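Encode chain A's predicted structure.
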Amino acid sequence: MPTGTLVLTRHGQSEWNKLNLFTGWKDPALTDLGKQEALKGAQELKKAGYTNFDVAFTSALSRAQNTLAIILKEIGQEDISVTRDQALNERDYGELTGLNKDDARKKFGEDQVHIWRRSYDVPPPGGESLELTAKRVLPYWEANIRPLLLEGKNVLIAAHGNSLRAMIMQLENLTGEQIVATELATGVPIVYKLDDAGKVLEKKILE
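Encoded structure for chain A:
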C-alpha cells in the first residue's frame, strides 16, 4: 500500500518574533534571518531528497506563505498546488497581541502570562488556548490533509508554532501537557512517514 510523507515547517523569524511580541493573527513580514532560516530548511530538504511533493498547505498569514515560497523555489517545485487557509493560522493571542512579552508580564503578572502561554486549555483574554487552536486546526486536517496522506501523497505544510503543535499532537498521540512543552524551531523541517492508516512509521528533524 502507498505511504505518504508529511513535512511540517514553522515559518522563519518574523519582525515581531525579533521584537519579542505576541503575534497571533497579525501579519508582520519575515526578517532577513527568517528568510535565511526558510532557505536553510529548504536546503536540508533537498539534501535529504525530499523534493517531490504533490501538494502544499499554508496559512492566511504572509510569514508562513513566504516561508513556503522560499522552500518551493529552492527545491524546484513552484508549480505544485498550494492551498492557503486561515484554519492553519497561528493561535490568536487576543489582548496579548502586539504586546512585548516582558511588558505583558509586568501588566498581568508573570504567573498569569506563563499560564496563558504554557497551559493547554486556558486562553488569554479574547484569544485562543492551544486547545481552542486545535479545535480549529484538526477538523481542517481531517477533512483536507489527512485523506491525501492516506492516498500516499507527499504533503508540505508551512505554518505556525501552535497550528503545527495541534497536528503533531494528533500524529504522535500526545497529551495537552506534552504538546505545550514541545518546542519547534523556526525554519526547521520535521518529516513524518505514515502508513496507509495514518500511523507514524518514522520521524526525522532536519537540522
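The chain has eight helices and six strands.
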